[in-house]
From TrEMBL:
Residues 162-227 form the Glycosyl transferase family domain. It comes from the Bacteria. The chain crosses the membrane at residues 6-25. It is found in: Cell membrane. PANTHER family: BINDING PROTEIN TRANSPEPTIDASE, PUTATIVE-RELATED, PENICILLIN-BINDING PROTEIN 1B. In the C-terminal section; belongs to the transpeptidase family. It catalyses: [GlcNAc-(1->4)-Mur2Ac(oyl-L-Ala-gamma-D-Glu-L-Lys-D-Ala-D-Ala)](n)-di-trans,octa-cis-undecaprenyl diphosphate + beta-D-GlcNAc-(1->4)-Mur2Ac(oyl-L-Ala-gamma-D-Glu-L-Lys-D-Ala-D-Ala)-di-trans,octa-cis-undecaprenyl diphosphate = [GlcNAc-(1->4)-Mur2Ac(oyl-L-Ala-gamma-D-Glu-L-Lys-D-Ala-D-Ala)](n+1)-di-trans,octa-cis-undecaprenyl diphosphate + di-trans,octa-cis-undecaprenyl diphosphate + H(+); Preferential cleavage: (Ac)2-L-Lys-D-Ala-|-D-Ala. Also transpeptidation of peptidyl-alanyl moieties that are N-acyl substituents of D-alanine. GO terms for biological process: cell wall organization; peptidoglycan biosynthetic process; proteolysis; regulation of cell shape. InterPro entries: Beta-lactam/transpept-like (IPR012338), Glyco_trans_51 (IPR001264), Glycosyltr_51/Transpeptidase (IPR050396), Lysozyme-like_dom_sf (IPR023346), PBP_transglycosylase (IPR036950), PCN-bd_Tpept (IPR001460). This is Uncharacterized protein.
């Protein structure tokens, strides 16, 4: 009976103890469960490199100024260096396993991986997750073991290694050891030798202790220790190890490459300023610059200008309408200067006239309408204005189209007055002209000064059938925070496409029978020449899809070129020479015909439609809007 009572009491005691242990365990588990982080976020690479870079249209680097380097490991690269990370993390820098019984019991009971406890990198991240936790002593230590284990099982060694290697701060301008390879050895980590790689990995311990600049000797000694561990673990062969250990390490600090195309980069800086991008702001600038076409342009201009008078200067701008910007530009008779193409403003002369005709057609006028080309006298208050035609050549009552083909001043002013000078001025600005265009009677003759680059942009709107967009040097600007500026993304229709096409169609006769006749421009090119008073400026603006070419020739001193200093004589042959370099001789210049435009035979005498009922057949073919046709012939 006593024995039964004894065993009964013992069972009760054991049950009480077990219940107490169970409650204690439950309480501890609740404690750890309460303070254990709920989420184990993947420690992504969060640093962005900061540099100012400019690229040409082919992706070639034109300029780079590095402010902060950062280059993350890819998953494949992390796997490639996995053994290097593990040896460094678990052996060279690893924590020793705990010896206290409670620690060992807790690790065994909770199934905690020993590598999670030994890993310096995993524990660093675990400590970050536990920052601010109101736990101290043994409990904090055990909680860190548990957090490290859960973190390792959640993210895995490769991801943790990559995140740590990417985010470590090295010096004032580098994040991560991949970027450090560029900083200290001026080459990628894949091209670094074993000693250089060990040197880089050494910095993961503590850059303040192992600074290659301040503590080069200490850093190299530790790199050799690391190499020895790699050799002991069979990651390096003996010959590899000995060669790496004895290799004389020399730092080759990275330097930004010398900038290319300095003059062009200055112009890019001007556009960036206009876009609100501050000087030196980290960003990636992609331009339309085409190195091959630019070199062709320079050589062609230099060759042509050798045939011209000494001191005569030139500018050439080549804009690609399809790509959206200026692909090549030169602003001197030879060399790389852009002065006269991008900065110097000159009166446009008759290259302004297509704006008048496009505005007229946009307002309902027809190319077959008639205008009186004679010398008019316009009363202006107490004075008067009476412009002359070139060489006093007047054609009388003529179809509107002839005023543009033969660049007739009086016919053009008459058309501008009928259309509305204010409307013409407004359209000029809407098409992109960067000038204070005023509705003066002389406005249609090109009295306002612009740069050749700006005139090319205006003609780009015409070539794009009346759609305005920014057509400069810059395609887009990308910022480290993901923002993107695309100057040409916003498009605005400023002219009816039928009106734009009708203007271009008439301009195709300028090289055929007009002011650029016999100057070598390719058949089908839509062009307009321009000559300012006293032959000070000679222009040609040519449209031949996908390009717009603007050429200026003149003296910097603004003196006269003489009677041969016209746009047809001085500028058009240069545009023709470039055309021949861009295309094969048999190339056809073609323009897309917009919907709603047809080609009709009209009378030369009165501009009426010629039908089968007409007794006379003499006429020409005109591009007309289907919904705005002239009357049919009456006999």
């Amino acid at each position: 009976m006593r024995l039964l009572r004894f065993f009964g009491g013992l069972i009760v005691l054991v049950a009480i103890l077990w219940y107490g242990v169970l409650n204690f365990y439950r309480g501890e588990m609740m404690f750890f469960d309460h303070y254990l982080p709920r989420d184990f976020p993947f420690p992504n690479q969060s640093r962005h490199g900061k540099s100012f870079t400019v690229y040409d249209s082919a992706g070639n680097l034109l300029e780079q100024r590095t402010f902060l380097r950062s280059e993350p490991f890819t998953p494949e690269e992390t796997e490639l260096f996995r053994d290097w990370f593990r040896v460094l993390d678990l052996e060279v820098d690893g924590y020793p396993l705990p010896k206290e019984e409670i620690d060992l019991f807790f690790m065994d009971f909770m199934g905690i991986e020993t590598e999670a406890v030994k890993s310096r990198i995993v524990n660093l991240y675990a400590d970050r997750l536990l920052e601010g936790t109101p736990v101290t002593g043994v409990r904090l230590r055990l909680l860190r073991y548990l957090t490290a284990d859960r973190l390792l099982k959640s993210a895995g060694f490769p991801a943790l290694y990559a995140a740590y290697a990417d985010n470590i701060v090295i010096g004032d301008d580098t994040y991560g050891i991949k970027a450090a390879s560029q900083t200290f050895f001026n080459r990628s980590i894949h091209r670094a030798n074993q000693k250089e790689k060990a040197f880089l990995f050494t910095m993961l311990k503590d850059y303040s202790l192992y600074d290659p600049i301040e503590n080069f000797a200490a850093t190299e000694r530790r790199a050799n220790i690391y190499l020895h561990f790699l050799y002991q673990r069979g990651i390096l062969e003996r010959e590899e190890y000995l060669h790496a250990r004895d290799y004389r390490l020399i730092l080759n600090m990275a330097k930004d490459p010398e900038p290319q195309e300095i003059e062009y980069l200055r112009a890019v800086a001007e556009e960036l300023k206009a876009l609100g991008v501050e000087a030196g702001e980290p960003c990636e600038v992609h331009t339309y610059f085409d190195a091959e076409k630019t070199e062709m342009l320079r050589s062609t201009v230099a060759e042509y200008m050798k045939t011209q008078e000494n001191g005569l200067q030139s500018a050439f701008v080549l804009l690609d309408v399809e790509k959206g910007g200026i692909v090549a530009m030169t602003g001197a008779r030879e060399g790389k200067s852009l002065k006269r193409a991008y900065y110097s403003r000159r009166q446009t002369g008759s290259t302004f006239k297509p704006i008048v005709y496009a505005s007229a057609f946009d307002s309902g006028a027809k190319p077959t309408d008639f205008v009186n080309d004679r010398r008019h006298v316009y009363k202006l208050g107490r004075g008067s204005y009476s412009p002359r035609n070139f060489e006093e050549f007047y054609m009388g009552n003529i179809p509107v189209r002839k005023g543009l083909v033969y660049s007739l001043n009086n016919a053009t002013i008459q058309l501008a007055v009928k259309t509305g000078l204010n409307r013409v001025a407004e359209n000029a600005v809407n098409m992109g002209m960067k000038a204070d265009v005023r509705p003066y009677l002389a406005m249609p003759l090109g009295i306002f000064a612009v740069t050749p680059a700006n005139l090319a942009q205006v003609y780009g709107t015409l070539a794009d059938y009346g759609v305005y967009r920014e057509r400069g040097l810059i395609e887009k600007v990308k910022f480290p925070d993901g923002r993107v500026i695309n100057p040409g993304a916003e498009q605005t229709r400023v002219l009816d496409e039928k009106a734009a096409f009708q203007t271009l169609y008439i301009m195709q006769d300028v090289p055929r029978i007009g002011t650029a006749k016999g100057k070598g421009l390719m058949k089908g090119t839509a062009a307009k020449t321009g000559t300012t008073d006293e032959y000070r400026d000679a222009w040609v603006a040519a449209v031949f899809p996908p390009y717009v070419a603007v050429v200026w020739v003149g003296y910097d001193t603004n003196r006269s070129m003489g009677e041969k200093g016209t746009g047809g004589t001085k500028a058009a042959p240069l545009a023709a020479a470039v055309q021949k370099k861009l295309f094969e001789p048999e190339h056809d210049v073609n323009f897309h015909v917009p919907e709603g435009v047809g080609f009709y035979k009209v009378s030369s005498a009165d501009g009426r439609l010629i039908t089968d009922k007409c007794s006379y057949k003499r006429g020409y073919t005109e591009a007309l809007a289907d919904d705005n046709l002239p009357e049919e012939c009456v006999r």
